[in-house]
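Researcher: Sequence recovery benchmark, item below. Answer with residues only.
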């Protein structure tokens, strides 16, 4: 446990901002201002009209409606009752979970597949309509439920997320991916997307001094609230009492490109000043980069510079095409065909690159390296 005095100092020096609060939103505005702007926002009461907000207050209703359905249950093994990739997951029935979860805060439904019979309790939302403008190659809806003060340690997810609180109260603390260096990701193969700083309210600044320079965004959710968390934004989540939530998730290459650009400009990648400036120039001139990359591919097929420039060029080619400026199928094919080369190059450079950077780059290329331990839990609460 970190010293209380260190926690107080961290609280005083870290810059604090509130997440933008909205009471209405049009889908195109969400896409333009928040997704494309890489900014979180909360739509107050956005799901307040959903039948689930009223019905899921009752465990008896859930038991009667879906008790016989299978559900994945996660068990915390951490001292802080937090959940991470090492938290064991096992199958159960929803009724069995409901029988004991209120008396055992270590038992939790953590990003599990929601029983299909509960879908009729959900509703529509202009925020979700805007979210549907993202790519849908990979999408899912996860369910969260717990009976006490569960905690998700500070981490990030690759996907964009609309988090809908159905019951209870949750407190999110978020950090921009641009503050990556001040958030101290674990440099190991177990949780490179989790921070050494589990709880941003308890930080030892002597051990983690760069945390003093980051900016935190705080938001408290009530039933019916909908929080948009951009992909790669760090966050911790604390539940207060019984809670139920849903997480709508999509993986979009435009979001990955935005994260890559922020990391590049923050100096996270091991590049000298000239290489960093060159790649930044490619990212900053998307149409010119897309045209040049397309011509190079037409002349010689797959080519390779290094992991960072090659990714910058190919993802720019793809995102420009996705927005109507080129051949999307050809761009997708180029990204797919480069995966073996990317995998080999990253593994060959594994002694020079940190585990957090390797993990980021494998996910940007969507080319698993096989060195990271399988992740058994998503981490959010």
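Model:
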């Amino acid at each position: 446990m970190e010293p209380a005095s260190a926690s107080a100092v961290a609280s005083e020096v870290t810059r604090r901002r509130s997440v933008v609060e909205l009471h209405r939103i049009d889908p195109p505005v969400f896409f333009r201002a928040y997704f494309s702007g890489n900014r979180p926002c909360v739509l107050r009461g956005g799901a307040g009209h959903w039948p689930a907000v009223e019905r899921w207050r009752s465990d008896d209703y859930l038991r009667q409606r879906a008790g016989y359905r299978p559900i994945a249950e996660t068990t915390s093994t951490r001292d802080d009752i937090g959940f991470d990739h090492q938290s064991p997951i096992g199958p159960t029935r929803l009724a069995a979970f409901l029988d004991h979860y209120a008396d055992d805060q270590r038992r939790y439904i953590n990003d599990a597949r929601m029983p299909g019979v509960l879908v009729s309790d959900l509703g529509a939302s202009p925020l979700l309509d805007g979210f549907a403008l993202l790519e849908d190659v990979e999408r899912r809806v996860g369910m969260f439920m717990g009976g006490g003060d569960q905690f998700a340690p500070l981490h990030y997810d690759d996907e964009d997320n609309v988090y809908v609180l159905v019951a209870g109260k949750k407190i999110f603390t978020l950090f921009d991916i641009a503050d990556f260096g001040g958030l101290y990701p674990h440099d190991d193969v177990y949780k490179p997307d989790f921070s050494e700083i589990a709880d941003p309210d308890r930080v030892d600044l002597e051990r983690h001094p760069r945390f003093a320079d980051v900016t935190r965004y705080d938001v408290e959710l009530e039933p019916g609230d909908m929080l948009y968390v951009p992909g790669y934004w760090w966050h911790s989540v604390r539940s207060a009492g019984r809670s139920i939530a849903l997480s709508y998730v999509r993986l979009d290459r435009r979001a990955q490109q935005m994260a890559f650009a922020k990391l590049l400009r923050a100096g996270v990648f091991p590049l000298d000043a000239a290489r960093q400036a060159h790649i930044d120039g490619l990212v900053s001139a998307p149409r010119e980069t897309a045209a040049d990359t397309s011509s190079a591919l037409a002349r010689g097929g797959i080519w390779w510079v290094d992991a960072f420039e090659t990714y910058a060029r190919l993802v720019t080619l793809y995102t420009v095409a996705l927005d109507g400026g080129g051949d999307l199928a050809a761009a997708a094919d180029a990204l797919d065909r480069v995966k073996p080369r990317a995998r080999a190059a990253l593994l060959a450079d594994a002694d020079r690159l940190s585990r957090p950077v390797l993990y980021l780059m494998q996910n940007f290329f969507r080319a698993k390296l096989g060195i990271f331990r399988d992740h058994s839990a998503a981490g959010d609460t």
